[in-house]
């Protein structure tokens, strides 16, 4: 599988006409410029791909920069529990809670208004992120320092810059990458788990 160029994907993303919710980011005033991440909602296919790489795994699931909460809600529905979303924008947190209430899951999922950079991830075993390439190097440091052994990270739209994926699903902006945390070795270097897609050039990867 030929890897898509992240630069081309970023250009395509920037050319999209933003919706109303993508323009409303009041929390940005409290976040350093280099850590700011504009909100662009995940597509249905992106959500499906994230779940395909997390479904059936035990432990807490968190979405960092959860936006309107669609990934968290879908994760809860497919059995990933507890499912928690962290989002700084209060309007998006409110929208996420509204969606959960309409789905009859208001008491089952959790959306917290918190800066994702300040969230403690030490009890998180399943993490999804749809963030801008500019912040991914810093995110790698945070994930590697805090996540427990056995945790899985799924990154949408853009891959983590220095980690080796154990699975890749989808094409173009719908592509997602999975990375596993293992004891005594580099992140993402161990054999991939059940349901992983083949990753050319990755030792131990296999077709799911």
Automatic annotation (TrEMBL):
UniProt keyword annotation of Methyltransferase present: yes
The family this protein is said to belong to: Belongs to the ANT/ATPSC lysine N-methyltransferase family.
Entry protein name: Meteorin, glial cell differentiation regulator
GO BP, sorted A to Z: methylation
GO molecular function: protein-lysine N-methyltransferase activity
Transferase as UniProt keyword: yes
Lineage: superkingdom: Eukaryota
Organism per entry: Equus caballus (Horse)
Keywords: Methyltransferase, S-adenosyl-L-methionine, Transferase
Compositional bias of kind Low complexity: 188-208
Cross-referenced InterPro entries: FAM173A/B (IPR026170), SAM-dependent_MTases_sf (IPR029063)
Residues covered by region (Disordered): 187-208
């Amino acid at each position: 599988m030929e890897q898509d160029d992240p630069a081309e994907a970023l250009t395509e993303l920037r050319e999209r006409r933003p919706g109303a919710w993508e323009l409303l980011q009041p929390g940005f005033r409290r976040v350093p410029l280099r850590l700011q991440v504009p909100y662009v909602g995940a597509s249905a296919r992106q959500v499906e791909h994230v779940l395909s790489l997390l479904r059936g795994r035990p432990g807490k699931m968190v979405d960092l920069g959860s936006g309107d909460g669609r990934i968290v809600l879908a994760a809860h529905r497919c059995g990933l529990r507890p499912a928690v979303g962290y989002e700084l924008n209060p309007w998006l947190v409110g929208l996420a809670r509204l969606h959960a209430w309409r789905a009859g899951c208001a008491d089952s999922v959790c959306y917290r208004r918190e800066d994702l950079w300040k969230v403690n991830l030490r009890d998180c075993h399943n993490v999804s992120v749809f963030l801008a390439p500019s912040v991914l190097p810093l995110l790698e440091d945070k994930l590697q320092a805090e996540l427990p052994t056995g945790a899985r990270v799924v990154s949408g739209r853009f891959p983590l810059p220095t980690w080796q994926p154990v699975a890749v699903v989808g094409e173009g902006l719908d592509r997602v990458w999975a990375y596993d945390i293992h004891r005594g070795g580099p992140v993402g270097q161990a054999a991939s788990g059940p349901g992983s897609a083949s990753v050319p050039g990755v030792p131990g990867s296999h077709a799911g």
